[in-house]
Amino acid sequence: MMDFQKLVDIYEELEQVSSGNKMREILADFFKTVPKEDIAIVAYLTLGKFTSDYENAVLGFAESSILKAISSAAGVSSSKVRESNQKTGDAGLTAEIFLKHKPQTLIPVGKLTIHELFENLKKLAEMSGTGSQDLKSNMIVRMYQKVSAKGAKYLTRILLGTLRMGVGDMTVLDALSIAYTGEKKNKELLENAYNICPDVGVMAETIAKKGLKGLEKIDVHVGRPIKMMLAQRIASLDELNKKMPGKVSVEGKYDGERVQAHKTKEGKIQLFSRRLDNTTNQFPDLVKYLDKINAKEFILEGEILAIDENGKPRPFQTLMQRRRKNDVEAYIKKVPVQIKIFDLLYVDGKTIFNKPFEERRKIINKIVPKGKHIMPAEEILTDNVEEMNDFFQKMLDDGYEGIMIKSLQGEYQAGTRGWNWIKWKKEYVKEMSDTFDLVVVGAYHGRGKRSGVYGALLCAIYNPENDSFETLCKLGTGLTDEVLDELPEKLKQYQSDKKPARVNCKKEMIPDVWFKPGVVVDVLAAELTVSPFHTAGVALRFPRFLRFRDDKKAEQATTLKEVSEI
């Protein structure tokens, strides 16, 4: 059985690295030495996880409870540990300091294996009720007793969910591809399989035990989310005919929260967000509406909107009030919701996402009821740009965001920004500006009125080709006092004492503080201009902060390819 220390040595190596390629190399070499039956566990733990994201298993430890466990394991007072932690600002470093000299136990405790750690993390996530706090604390203390001082540092970060070495899911997939197929060019096959099965553990085990042929056989599984398809954009509606000739489907585009809903044969309904988080508990009312769909089993997608008593849309910020663990019932009444269904990927035992959209949409119209709280997305079929523009204006008048134009023959391209969907929003109209989802990778200290807080942010776009983040702008406008107050706390867990390995930045733009890619912001800008100072090769002109995009992961930000095409 593999000792956790082997993984700790890899964590240490990765923490010193500032190159994405070197990171992949280290991981690929390590993966080659891992027994095949352990590779799934190692893949999860490399990311500081013990399950896939969609399984909603959360440890949820407060830093104070972990500091107490450190003091028990080290045999020192809690106040001493707290005091040290205030100086280091990192509970991991605090654990390393105090567990260099552990008190001897009467019975030798042995070493922590990755299996024991993995099983313990699962147990800790499941424990609840009377006496569970003591049981959890004892389990953590026992693990501290079995690890080295460096091991204590990383164990602490795993427990607090702060093990962020700049390694992303795609970094792990690239390294698996190199380790088991000898080259990175098989990455595309891995990515396609991962888009249908976004579970690093399943992917690692499949490729290790069954090779590339095993990946080709990975199929849709109800209850396991599929990575969501994304839309392209065009400069004007007149361009549409080049990209999508002939008759198309034009649907409403809504400013709500995208959801993928799964219903099993047994009747269990689960909801997954764009980030693939399980959000079922936030929307028990939505589960009831979805149960009215005339199908025993399905995977479908729609947009959740907050509505008023007349069924009219309310702002996105209002919907965000539904993101809660407590008072859910009260907020069902306070913020009622509606779902507009716009795609169907699986129904009654059949995978249909590779069927033409026209067929999928006909089934939606047949099985989805039309009511105040659930309905198919508004749609017209046309090849006439004027009719599209009229429908676009109607959607804006109704309080929506714009339109989605879909190829009638198009498949659903999981996890891909394909030309089968094109979005057209009010921001794209010539006299308006454009919006971008950017990743915060750095911050500059404020001056004058903003001294003592971050004055501006360094923002980047994602380059999926290299699994890297390229800087695009310095963002200061639109950051209200409220946002500035919120920033340090929001960014704290991503702070890095050096440039993260996957971030590329020119010396002219080096920030005062670095952040590992994690926080996504919605930014409005007038235009793009060529820039020698940003690694994207262009920069945003007059960027303005609009809002945080908590529903997006860093890798779901605007891409370099999208920006190149604007």
Overview features:
566 residues, alpha+beta, DNA ligase i, domain 1, OB fold (Dihydrolipoamide Acetyltransferase, E2P), 3 domains, 8-stranded mixed beta sheet, 6-stranded mixed beta sheet, 21 strands, 37% helix, globular
Largest sheet: 8 strands, mixed
Which CATH architecture of the largest domain?
2-Layer Sandwich
Total discrete domains = 3
**What is the assigned CATH homologous superfamily of the largest domain?**
DNA ligase/mRNA capping enzyme
CATH class of the largest domain: Alpha Beta
Count of strand segments: 21
Gap from first CA to last CA: 52 Å
Low-confidence segments, ≥5 residues, pLDDT <50?
A: none
Helix content: 25-40%
The helix count comes to 20
Q: Report Rg.
A: 25 Å
> What shape does the CA trace take?
globular
Hey, roughly how much beta strand do the residues contain? 15-25%
Chain-averaged pLDDT: 91
Structural class by secondary-structure content: alpha+beta
In CATH terms, what is the fold-level topology of the largest domain? Answer: D-amino Acid Aminotransferase, Chain A, domain 1
